[in-house]
TrEMBL record:
UniProt entry keywords in alphabetical sequence: Hydrolase
UniProt keyword annotation of Calcium present: no
Low complexity bias: start-end ranges: 1-12
A Pfam family reported for this protein in Swiss-Prot or TrEMBL: Abhydrolase_1
Residue stretches making up the AB hydrolase-1 domain: 78-186
Keyword field contains Hydrolase: yes
GO molecular function, one term: epoxide hydrolase activity
InterPro entries xref list: AB_hydrolase_1, AB_hydrolase_fold, Haloalkane_dehalogenase
Organism the protein comes from: Aegilops tauschii subsp. strangulata (Goatgrass)
Stretch list, region Disordered: 1-20
Organism lineage: Eukaryota, Viridiplantae, Streptophyta, Embryophyta, Tracheophyta
Name of this chain's protein: AB hydrolase-1 domain-containing protein
Length: 216
């Protein structure tokens, strides 16, 4: 299947060179995991301005969402789930995964709406609320790590993970928060990040590793 949608770093009409790109190589390292059912009537998403049906990159892939996951290390090792921040993707952990692989089974994934995972539009199967994200995270964890695990989470997705951890304390060995918002003031997205909620900008930048995830 074509993994580029014209705006994605994964290919499409804005690809800079022929042949496999770094994003193609990254995609080849991972797999799609089905977790968390869509709600509602599952109709095709339409843009909020003109009512036109949006492209395949903005549609859900089926009755259950697809999550892009990359895994390293033996399944017999303790599991560590690496959760990226906003706006970013699992690619930001590309150098961490091999370091942990000697002693841990490490898993990084793209949140719904980011990277190679499904990008449902609000009101079309997923509304991006705290409760819904928490429920979706529970579904994904049940799919990839049925036993106890440790979680590392960055930035603005920390409140979702803290809510999950509070509701599933018996599931966790350790919880590590990296640069989380710790007050109500900091919990609100600054304007430089809030712009990504625009349905066009969000779709572009949540997929471009050179803009969002290349911190090394």
């Amino acid at each position: 299947d074509d993994i580029g949608d014209g705006f994605s770093f994964s290919g499409g009409k804005y690809a800079e060179a022929e042949g496999p790109s770094k994003s193609d190589e990254w995609f080849a390292q991972g797999r799609m995991v089905k977790a968390h059912a869509l709600y509602g009537n599952k109709e095709k998403a339409k843009d909020p301005f003109f009512g036109l049906t949006m492209g395949s990159g903005s549609q859900s892939s089926g009755d259950v969402f697809n999550w892009f996951c990359v895994e390293a290390g033996s399944s017999s090792n303790p599991t560590v789930l690496l959760i990226h921040g906003f706006p970013s993707q699992a690619y930001s952990y590309r150098n961490v995964l091999p370091v942990l692989s000697d002693k841990y089974r490490s898993i990084a994934f793209d949140w719904l709406g980011f990277g190679f995972s499904d990008k449902p539009q609000p009101k079309y199967g997923f509304d991006y609320t705290l409760d819904e994200y928490t429920s979706a995270l529970e579904s994904l964890i049940d799919a990839v790590a049925p036993d106890k695990l440790s979680i590392v989470v960055q930035g603005y997705f920390a409140p979702i993970v803290v809510k999950y951890a509070n509701e599933h304390q018996d599931k966790l060995n350790h919880l590590i928060l990296v640069n989380p918002p710790i007050t109500d003031k900091h919990a609100k997205l600054p304007s430089t990040l809030a712009c990504f909620s625009n349905f066009l900008l969000g779709e572009v930048f949540s997929q471009v590793s050179s803009y969002c995830a290349n911190f090394a």
